[in-house]
Write a structure and sequence with these properties.
By secondary structure, this protein is mostly helical. The chain has helices spanning about 5-20, 20-40, 60-70, 85-90, 105-110, 125-150, 170-195, 195-205, 205-210, 215-245, 255-280, 280-300, 310-315, 320-335, 340-365; strands at about 50-55, 75-80, 95-100, 115-120. Strands 2-1-3-4 form a 4-stranded mixed beta sheet, with helices on both faces. α3 (about 60-70) links the parallel β1 (about 50-55) and β2. α2 (about 20-40) packs antiparallel against α7. The two termini are about 25 Å apart.
Length: about 375
């Protein structure tokens, strides 16, 4: 391999990047935009949930329990005179749940500690419905504990001591932002690289490269290195925003994070290069890259949707999605630390996919026009 020829090809690719600002925008502006949108605009938490309150027989205990609901940041309660009015509020979208305290609420709360609460939840969004149900149950347990401390004879069936590891505040942002770095690097690596060879075919410059004495490995290396540098720059920008802007804890080693990110970026570059070798049109290459890399990374990586909740055939399919392994390592390094029993299997999966994609690209790329 001739170092001068590789450097010349790298210089040519850098000039192409400088002349095409869209590549720089994808590498540095797109991560900024995506992180701001997901960091501030996307949340899996349910806050200020509008709930309808119906009380058949107001007492001191019903007032105390409703006051506990109103103090919670999770609920935005509104009082309704009867159940029919509350049901209309759900139908009209003014409430997502009804908390109905029946006439025997105070008597049963004092005698048995059982909750005579009728809870109705709008279940169109099943995940949100489960969250609301858990919030109401948690508020009920908190209220019962307070009543016991105040000398009320209510009995709490279970006194649970809850410890939440890795994300004690249960903030969805701390879970989403690390996974989003994998989506960003997939876009940078696969989408940009998918265009590098097809662009040469479209512009008619590939013929000129073919007649030069450069080897195919030198051509591919000269095209990959500039995008690898851009991808690592995008990773550093994303990590800095995650830690300093969104306050996501980085409990693991930054060196470990960088090494695994470099391995994933090589895998993403291999995916993009494989597409670029097979497709001679930039439009086709871009569409194939989005369908085969970005969408699987977004849906099948565990970034938002839990892989264990998917059907078994889909779970098997996720093993060929490189972002699946990187999302798991990112969330582990950021929130838990350098847990090698988690990191090593995922690193092994990335190594295998990286070898497959880059090896296929080298084998399929030929210095001929047919």
């Amino acid at each position: 391999m001739n170092r001068m020829r590789v450097q010349g090809l790298m210089r040519k690719e850098v000039n192409e990047i400088v002349r095409d600002p869209s590549s720089i925008a994808i590498a540095f502006v797109l991560p900024l935009v995506l992180l701001l949108i997901f960091g501030y605009g996307v949340s899996l938490d349910a806050r200020s949930v509008p709930v309808a309150e119906v009380v058949e027989q107001p007492t001191g205990l019903t007032a105390s329990f409703l006051a506990e609901l109103e103090r919670s940041r999770w609920f935005q309660p509104t009082r309704y005179p009867d159940q029919a009015s509350a049901e209309r509020a759900i139908l009209q979208g003014r409430a997502l749940a009804i908390i109905w305290l029946r006439s025997d609420f105070s008597r049963q709360a004092l005698s048995s500690g059982a909750a005579p609460i009728h809870l109705t939840i709008n279940g169109v969004d099943a995940n949100q419905a489960r969250i609301i149900q858990n919030y109401v149950n948690g508020t009920w347990q908190t209220w019962l504990q307070q009543q016991t401390l105040q000398g009320q004879p209510s009995r709490i069936p279970v006194d649970a001591e809850v410890r939440i590891w890795f994300n004690p505040a249960l903030t969805s942002r701390d879970y989403l932002i690390p996974g989003l770095i994998a989506i960003i690097m997939t876009l940078i690596g696969a989408l940009l690289t998918a265009l590098v060879v097809s662009r040469e075919w479209e512009r008619g410059t590939m013929e000129g490269i073919m007649v030069t004495p450069v080897a195919k490995t030198e051509i591919l290396l000269g095209k990959l290195v500039p995008y690898f540098v851009m991808g690592m720059g995008g990773m550093l920008l994303s990590t800095a925003m995650a830690v300093f802007l969104f306050r996501v804890p980085l409990r693991g080693s930054f060196l470990v994070l960088s090494a695994i990110a470099a391995l994933f970026l090589l895998t993403a570059l291999g995916m993009g290069l494989m597409i670029s070798v097979l497709a001679r049109s930039q439009f086709v290459a871009a569409m194939v890259a989005i369908v085969t890399t970005f969408l699987p990374a977004f849906i099948l990586s565990g970034f938002i949707f839990d892989i264990r909740s998917m059907p078994q055939p889909i779970q098997l399919l996720t093993h060929i999605v490189a972002a699946r392994y990187f999302v798991a390592t990112l969330q582990t390094v950021f929130l838990a630390g350098d847990i090698w029993s988690v990191l090593l299997p995922n690193v092994l999966g990335l190594c295998m996919l990286c070898a497959v994609f880059l090896g296929f690209s080298v084998l399929r790329f030929h210095k001929r026009l047919d």
